């Protein structure tokens, strides 16, 4: 029987491997509109760098992968949410972000969505709230 008093309360952080943290930080903040959070050195070789929506919630850590771990260019499975899918898609496309050519619409109950790729080819998708 499991101990039900020690339950997970939330998803705190999702880690995305990047080759250049400064380039990734610029992309996630200036292109996607997230805000910089934690930025701390980890030993002599690593840096923990987080971004998140202004309203808070789960953070994305954009970090250099340690040896033997997945390198940049992964399908992250991260879903971002917006109130204006068409406006956000158009803004990203106009600013040069690698987005799908169009917003995909499957119909109810699936929300409109599109995929985007960061400068390292890591994919995320955006859905309408």
Structural class: alpha/beta
Rounded mean pLDDT score: 94
CATH class: Alpha Beta
The fourth-level CATH homologous superfamily is 2,3-Dihydroxybiphenyl 1,2-Dioxygenase, domain 1
* Beta-strand content: 35-45%
Instruction: Tell me the strand order in the biggest sheet.
Output: 1-4-3-2
Please provide a written account of the structure.
The protein is of the alpha/beta class. It has a single domain, classed as Roll (2,3-Dihydroxybiphenyl 1,2-Dioxygenase, domain 1). It has 2 helices and 8 strands. The strands form 2 sheets. It has a 4-stranded mixed sheet, covered by helices on one side. It is globular and about 45 Å long. The chain starts with 12 loop residues before the first strand and ends with a strand. The model has no long low-confidence stretch (mean pLDDT 94).
A few lines on this structure:
By secondary structure, the chain is α/β, with parallel strands linked by helices. It is built from two helices and eight strands, in the order E-H-E-E-E-E-H-E-E-E. It has helices spanning 21-31, 85-94; strands spanning 13-17, 35-42, 46-52, 59-63, 75-82, 98-99, 113-117, 123-128.
Structural features:
four-stranded mixed sheet; alpha/beta; 2,3-Dihydroxybiphenyl 1,2-Dioxygenase, domain 1; 129 residues; 2 helices
Topology diagram in text:
Elements (H helix, E strand, L loop, with lengths): L12 E5 L3 H11 L3 E8 L3 E7 L6 E5 L11 E8 L2 H10 L3 E2 L13 E5 L5 E6 L1
Parallel strand pairs: 1-4, 5-8
Antiparallel strand pairs: 2-3, 3-4, 6-7, 7-8
């Amino acid at each position: 029987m499991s101990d039900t008093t020690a339950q997970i309360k939330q998803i705190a952080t999702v880690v995305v491997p990047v080759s250049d943290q400064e380039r990734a930080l610029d992309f996630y903040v200036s292109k996607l509109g997230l805000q910089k959070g934690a930025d701390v050195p980890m030993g002599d070789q690593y840096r923990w760098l987080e971004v998140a929506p202004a309203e808070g919630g789960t953070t994305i850590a954009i970090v250099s992968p340690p040896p033997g771990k997945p390198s940049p260019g992964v399908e992250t499975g991260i879903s971002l949410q917006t109130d204006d899918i068409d406006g956000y898609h158009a803004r990203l496309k106009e600013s040069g972000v690698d987005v799908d050519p169009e917003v995909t619409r499957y119909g109810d109950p699936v929300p409109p969505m599109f995929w985007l790729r960061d400068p390292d080819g890591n994919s995320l998708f955006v859905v309408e709230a």
